[in-house]
Amino acid sequence: MTTQAEMIEVIRAENPNGLRVGNEENGYTQLSEADYEAQISQWALGRLAKEAKAAEAEQAVTDKATLLAKLGITADEAKLLLS
Amino acid sequence: MAKQTFTVGQVLTAAQVTSLQQTAMGGGSATAKTASYVLVAADAGTVVQMNSASATTITVNTALFSQGDSVQIQNVGSGVCTVTAGSATVSTAGSLALSQYEGGQLYFNTTSAALFFDIVQSSGMTNPMTTTGDIIYSSSGSTPARLGIGTTGQVLNVSGGIPAWTTAASGSALTLISRTTFSGVASQTFDGVFTSTYENYIVYFNSMSAATSADDPQLALRYEATDVASSVYFNRMAMQSASGTVTGSGQNAVSFILMNAQTGSGSEPGYGAMYFGNVGNTANKGNAYGWFNDGQSGNMSWLNGNFASGNAANKITTGFKISTSSSNVSGTITIYGLAKA
User: Fold this and answer.
1) Residues near B298 by Cβ (< 8 Å), separated by ≥ 6?
2) What was the pLDDT predicted at B233?
3) Cβ separation of A25 and B180 shorter than 8 Å?
4) ipTM metric
5) Which residue of B has its CA nearest to A26?
6) Do B328 and A15 touch (CB under 8 A)?
7) B187 lies within 8 A of chain A by CB
């Protein structure tokens, strides 16, 4: 399981030149060091939440396969039982 | 110097030569007049200068001047001095009525026909402009007048026969509010784009992408430059183009996903549009719906939701923010306002 600190380092490596806001019409502004750190930290939480959700979905698939094996039936047979 | 008849062998004095020089330069001795005057033969080659506060005339008669003679006439008084044809004719392309500090040359074509070449002292136009963006137009009597610059978005119109800056008629069409392109930014805010001018908006999303494939472009509603954190309810339904599998999810969060996760790659940007209705309407909740595709892979997303729009406690929506959950975002967003019914 990736820690928040590890994820922050991953995202920091993806953005070695800092972060910016703005647009083509009005120009871009580099985020301050404090804002950069806050944004990276927030992004790390978002990515960790997505990782956790993916792991949870993967675990559900594994649990289902384990249960089907224990029952000795296929997924289609299980659907038939529930219909 | 008045017109002279020179004789052979006559010796000119220094004063005479100086006077002749002045005359040759268009000047010469001036005969001051303070009342209406009738030109005499001795005025040939001189300057007749009127100085009267009342209206006066300078009369031109025949058989006094020879062909080629000229008389300069000046008016330095505040009363109008009029060059008047007595028994001679006086022709001019300008005006024979001379205001203060106007004048001209009376030139005799024949002894009985004179031409008057007037010299009008033009003061030029007084500049009525005071501020950047001012425009000059002709008011009553062709007087230059100032039209101050209008406000952003106003158009030049005509009101009461003079130009005027006015707010463009809303009509029934969509009005472009802004078009913004951003590349690799942490977030892009659109504050103040939802105003009392409109209640309904259409927003086009072009070439949207996140910096990493794990992310999806998402939107948060804004109020006074702050993300609206409550009373925002959005549902999203996504369909995989290859399998036709449809999944749905509620998104009652500050930021809600617009497009499928596969939009993540910059080489497969996403496109779409959203309608925002009842924005700022105090009687009804705001609502929004949209549809998106992620370009190359063709997955689709539909969004539908509502948000507190006119309830001040839950914030009146004045804009939105585009971001992703954990990386930079790029794209072009165009916002149109739909005229109120």
Assistant:
1) B241
2) 84
3) yes
4) 0.77
5) B180
6) yes
7) yes
What tokens were used for B118?
């007037």
- Who has greater pLDDT, B143 or B4? B143
* Tens-place pLDDT, residues B217-238: 899 988 888 888 777 888 988 8
Q: Hey, is the C-beta of B182 within 8 angstroms of any chain A C-beta?
A: yes
B162 Cβ neighbours under 8 A, 6+ residues apart: B137, B139, B145, B147
Q: Do A25 and B181 touch (CB under 8 A)?
A: yes
Residue B104 token pair: 């001209």
Q: What is the number of domains present in chain A?
A: 1
Residues spanned by the domain of A15: 4-82
Contacts of A31 in chain B (CB under 8 A): 186
Q: Does B213 touch chain A (CB under 8 A)?
A: no
Q: Helix-strand-coil percent breakdown of chain B, rounded to 5? A: 10, 45, 45
How far B211 CA lies from chain A's nearest CA (Å)? 9
Single pTM value for the model: 0.56
Model confidence at B264, pLDDT cuts 50, 70, 90, reads: very low
Closest-CA residue of chain B to A29: B185
Q: For the stretch B51-88, what's the b/e string if a residue is b when 16 or more beta carbons lie within 10 angstroms of its beta carbon?
A: bbeeebbbbbbbebbeeebbbbbbbbbebbbbbbbeeb
Going by C-alpha positions, the residue among B149, B125, B151, B150 that lies closest to residue B138 is B125
